[in-house]
Fold:
Amino acid sequence: MNEPIVDALRDRLGDAKVQTGDALDERRFDYWVLSHLRDWRGEPMERPGVVACPESAADVQTIVRLAGETGTSLVPFGLGSGVCGGIQPDPSVILVDLGKMNRVREIDETNLLASFDAGLNGLEAEEAVAARGLTIGHWPQSIAISTVGGWVSTRAAGQFSTGYGNIEDIIYSIEAVLPNGDLVELGKAPRAAAGPDLRHLLLGAEGTMGIVTGVTLALRRQPEDRVYAAYYTPSLAAGFEVQRNIVQAGWLPPVMRQYDASEVARNFKDYTSEDRGLLLMVHEGPAARVAAEMETVYEIARKGGLEEAPPAVGPHWMEGRNHVPSWRQLFEGNLIVDTIEISAPWTRIEAIYEDATASLRELEAVKIASAHSSHVYRTGLNLYFTFVARHEDSADMEGTYLDCWRRVMEATTRHGGGLAHHHGIGRLRKPYLEQELGESGAALLRRVKQAVDPQALMNPGNLIPDA
Structure:
């Protein structure tokens, strides 16, 4: 990093908000498995040139304006929980760590709104509103290690999304600093018809269109009742059909998760049954509605050929749903593992499952190829593929990993599915984004990027397909 730029940051922000030295090592990458594999193998990993730690939107404006004056690239950083390689700084960039922007700005119990600094830990945000008898209703697996601004930037989905929606359904307004240093607040009413919804320039932009500094989220009251239900599925198709009939009839259990037999055997060892799959649901809300929903869903499941599973399946899942081994533990066991989430209409999802899992199993190193669904819509649902590959030589892991991703992306494309449901694009999916958007769509995205960030300073190399 050019020393005059570091000096200028210190002059404009103060020494306490500028970090160099060992602090740079902690922000070299996000939670993408390949970054951790390369680091574990001892491969050189570049560091950012300097870390700026703003405490306010005004500080972010100062950083962005300095970057524009000097032609210096910027990489926004929340808590580093992204899993697609969205964070890969090099010594020429200023990494903007939003961790000190962690205030609860306001909780409005009448309008059911809560405003937060973008760097606030997601679980802390939920706990703040829960103390008022409210909930955000957004429960990503990473809730305790992600920020509310990161939810917006990656277009996140939570485990209760079938009933409560994804982040784009929960967001009310976004405060952000644009690449020219201007501060904007996008969204001021429950709905607007004031031209294109500019919030979507930042939703899912992964730091390429500006830096999110604050968010206002629409809340819900804590549910009066919560009840678990679970059913064994004789086939994947039977479970999908029951899910379709439930949501298309207007019922929306916040959690609807269907596991294939392989995942049941692995994740629900005490509840396996005759090589069958499992459909797990959480019903919550007003007690009367929960009771009515439970009764109707039971009838739909019964008519669809499903059999009740022990109700303890639900609490078992709830208790362990966010517990996963570290990448390092897996590497040391000679394993390379990842999950890949896609989505598709009802008429295409089963073909994607069959094609993708069969293709993964063609690889000798792949020991597990399975999937579950976790987010359901009237028009279709998502699938969450898991692959586990074993290599005695860690040098072989990266090639197999990328081949597994290629196979799932290609199977999804062959059958007309969407290549990314909620983990975003980063550098991992970037080569496939043109397949998702089409040639003209990818060109449009590049033109939008050029218009918003003409110097191409915001998180370069991430998300935007190469021309």
Notes: The domain at 102-221 is CATH 3.30.465.10 (Uridine Diphospho-n-acetylenolpyruvylglucosamine Reductase; domain 3). The first strand starts at residue 18 and ends at 19. The longest helix spans residues 433-452.
